[in-house]
Amino acid sequence: MSAYLIKNVSVVGGAPTDLLIRDGVVAETGADLTAPDATVLDATGLVALPGLVDLHTHLREPGREDAETVESGSRAAALGGYTAVCAMANTSPVADTAGVVEQVWRLGREAALVDVQPIGAVTVGLAGERLAELGAMADSAARVRIFSDDGHCVADPKLMRRALEYVKAFDGIIAQHAEEPRLTEGAQMHEGEVSTRLGLTGWPAVAEEAIIARDVLLAEHVGSRLHICHVSTAGSVEVLRHAKARGVRVTAEVTPHHLLLTDERATSYDPVFKVNPPLRTAADIAALRAALVEGVIDIVATDHAPHAVEDKECEWAYARPGMLGLETALSIALDVLGPQWDLIAERMSRTPARIAGLDSHGLDPAPGVPANLTVVDPAARRVIEPAELASRSRNTPYARMTLPGRIVATFLRGEPTVLDGKAVK
What mean pLDDT is reported for the chain? Predict the structure, then answer.
């Protein structure tokens, strides 16, 4: 394997040091290291973080390779500083069997750009009627531990209870898309002042909050692990705070776009800003940011949702919801949180790795640790150009925005996937 010597890098915001990477691990750290056989990278002014981990990525393969593939999504992830991503189950066919999750897992291994960990569906075909093959997916080569019908809510409380009970046997997690469907029929955006002004059917905050409240009670009753996807409202934060205070085994994520963009973006009728759950109000954003810092919300997850042109560049009412996120997530975190490197490492690497059970990820660079890491230039600023993104799709809400930070290098088990800001392969 190759050897790399990263000189004068700040590890998670600490004092500059050298990192020697050899045989897939961080072999040595310290000042003035030398290694004649190593490729030297001058990282003066740069920051090394444990490789980012995304608990919520849509890679579209199998079935919608026109929007994304495991390989193209993995490349986008590496360029965004990620070393592991969890791929959601709403593919075609749905990842509700051992065969499909193993296919996604093997495609990830072949791409070898990030570790791709499949998420299995909770119900057959995401239909919300019968439990999928949870045990078979858990016992497969992919060793699935997270299950989600994301894009659809597991609305039936009896079925949700059964799922929580089932995965408890192997310490699995049910990741819920919290949306009471009877409250969001025909919804086009957040229900509030802007939706009223635009004449668009609203998606009320209570549709999310009611499901979270129900599910934390079910998880508490069963004693199982629950994860809440893409939390978007201030009310949801309060439900989660109360549940955590009682010791419920619940974790939660927030997306970069819900930390930055408000429902006012819908006034442009640009479908790039249509997402599920919808963009909320400035008050919601303030509550989400505070909850992320506090730890009521555990992690940042991208909900990277690529869409083909014909599914997104059309009338608002017919556009598919979703936004790209992998290549811009760290920049949004820097924009929102500032250079709080330890907090960023905790919310974007260490904690998501622990939740997903990815033991070789989320570890700060130190001797003997697997060399899964990313190197960031915090002083850089870049203009987001959709045509320059690695994703097959172009539906980024940050087009032509200037964002802070640039990924200089990403290493997966000691091998670079990104060098000088460019994909190695």
Answer: 98
Please state whether 186 falls in left (phi above 0), alpha (psi between -120 and 50) or beta: left
SS3 288: helix
CA distance 344 to 266: 29
- On the question of pLDDT at 1 being above 80, the answer is no
The model's pTM is: 0.98
Q: Are 107 and 99 in contact (CB under 8 A)?
A: no
Q: What is the pLDDT of residues 31-66, one digit of tens each?
A: 999 999 999 999 999 999 999 999 999 999 999 999
- 393-418 pLDDT, tens digit per residue, is 999 999 999 999 999 999 999 999 99
361 within a domain of the structure (yes/no): no
How far apart CA 206 and CA 21 sit, in angstroms, is: 49
Residue 78 clears pLDDT 90, i.e. is over it: yes
Q: Are 391 and 327 in contact (CB under 8 A)?
A: yes
Identified catalytic residue from 303, 311, 335, 377: 303
DSSP secondary structure of 351-367: HHHHHHT-TTSS--S-T
At 151, give phi and psi (nearest 5°). 100, -25
* Same domain as 55, residue 37: no
CATH of the domain at 17: 2.30.40.10
Domain count, the chain: 2
Predicted local distance difference test score (pLDDT) of residue 425:
83
Whether residues 317 and 415 share a domain: the answer is: no
At residue 101, the pLDDT reads 98
Helix (H) or strand (E) holding 209: helix 205-222
Looking at the structure, do residues 238 and 325 belong to the same domain, yes or no?
yes
Say which residues have a Cβ less than 8 Å from residue 312's Cβ, sequence separation at least 6.
271, 272, 319, 320, 393, 395
Domain span at 27: 4-47+367-423
Considering the domain architecture, whether residues 227 and 275 belong to the same structural domain is answered as yes
Q: In 120-204, where does DSSP find H-type helix?
A: 134-139, 157-168, 193-198
Beta bridge pairs of residue 189: 202
185 and 117 inside one domain: yes
Looking at the predicted structure, is the pLDDT value of residue 100 above 80? yes
Indicate if 284 belongs to the active site: no
